Amino acid sequence: MVTVTRDPDRYRVLPGEGYDGVVQVLAEGFYGSGTLLYGGRAVLTSAHVLEGTNNVSVRMDTPDGRINLPASHYVLHPLYETNGVNNDLALVWLTDPAPVTAERSALYRHSDELGNVITLVGYGLTGDGATGYIESGTNAPTKHLAENRFDTTGEGLKAAFGRSINWDPLAGSQLIIDFDNGSSANDALGVLMGLDNTGRGAAEGMIAPGDSGGPAFIGNKVAGITTYSASLSRNDQTPDVNDQLDSSFGEIAGFQRVSHYQQWIDQSLRQMDTNAPTRPEDVVTSIQEGNSGTQLVYFLLEFNGVRSDPGQWLSVDYATRDGTANAGEDYLAVADTLILYPGENQATIAVEVIGDMTPEPDETFYLDVFNPVGGSFGVGVAQLTAVRTILDDHGWLG
């Protein structure tokens, strides 16, 4: 991650700073970045990081140190274009669950990304915005962060430049930033599109090699996936400080828009999780906690009504809540939106139960489901609640 500062360590992400779920994706000698998703078993990244590879693994920097986890398999978006511009997404399924200390992330599901401040996190090269990134030496890549802002969309960029850019962003699917140094002369989208904004000051940053597949967060949710950078000019207007594609001031970058791709991400994750129940009678309401790591316990949501439009999306919000079990100690809290897409009448919510060797009584936690959109819970019902029991298997006596 290139930053404005000349001290790259200023933006080093240390364990415990809230981005322990941003990972390095390794693919046969190449690497990119990625994000660990809810459930702790899948990583979202870019397709071009993995294309044509067989041996994929994930490296995580956690509060307990750096670990490597092999991947069992991965899937590329079926419409991925090999030029690395459109539909550039992939999901990696881990052989074993990520450690409890690795932070999980939810998707940003709204379409209001433009104008939002974002946090970029990745394992890319560092350097100085005035001179571009510095080629890596012998040191292992480290995780860095910086800020920026979503300024426009891919189709907005294409409309402004027409045939003068040699790629064609799919409508609705990309978000664009530029790399500002506080000067209007190097405000790329200000100079070239009239979108004047001179940046985030010393916090401003840009993607660089190694950041591909890494996240752009709005708050703590993944809103964009790093895809490409470009140096643009038009009619003798050249905002790039050095006219080279090197992540220097005046360049732009494109991200796959997660809200546009949430259906593919959600449905791919559902297909990858072969242990999820599909019938009410298969739902298990209690689970042995185990000795270590995490195990999944499921909640099955079903829609029994009739859609007014066959293409309608149905959704509910949900969040876990402590009973006698405590989030972070006995299970990992989740809060998100579940969507039933056209053709779907049911889906599961998975919650990770934390295993340990401590004798303790059986404990419970709850899942609250609320804010139905496209349907209702019944007359006068605003919220549904289900409970799960974590069974102690270490001989606790009470």
Q: What features would you describe in this structure?
A:
By secondary structure, the protein is mainly beta. It folds into 2 domains: 2-264, Thrombin, subunit H, CATH 2.40.10; 279-391, Sandwich (Immunoglobulin-like). Helices cover 8% and strands 37% of the residues. The protein has helices at residues 47-50, 154-161, 188-193, 258-272, and strands at 2-3, 22-27, 30-36, 42-45, 56-62, 65-76, 90-94, 106-107, 117-122, 127-128, 132-133, 144-149, 152-153, 174-178, 205-206, 215-218, 221-230, 252-257, 286-288, 294-302, 314-322, 335-340, 346-354, 363-373, 383-391. Strands 8, 9, 12, 13, 14, 16, 17 and 18 form an 8-stranded mixed beta sheet that branches. A 6-stranded antiparallel beta barrel has the order 2-3-4-7-6-5. A 5-stranded mixed beta sheet has the order 19-25-24-21-22, with no helix packed on it. The longest helix is centred in the middle third of the chain and has 15 residues, at 258-272. The chain is globular, with a radius of gyration of 22 Å.
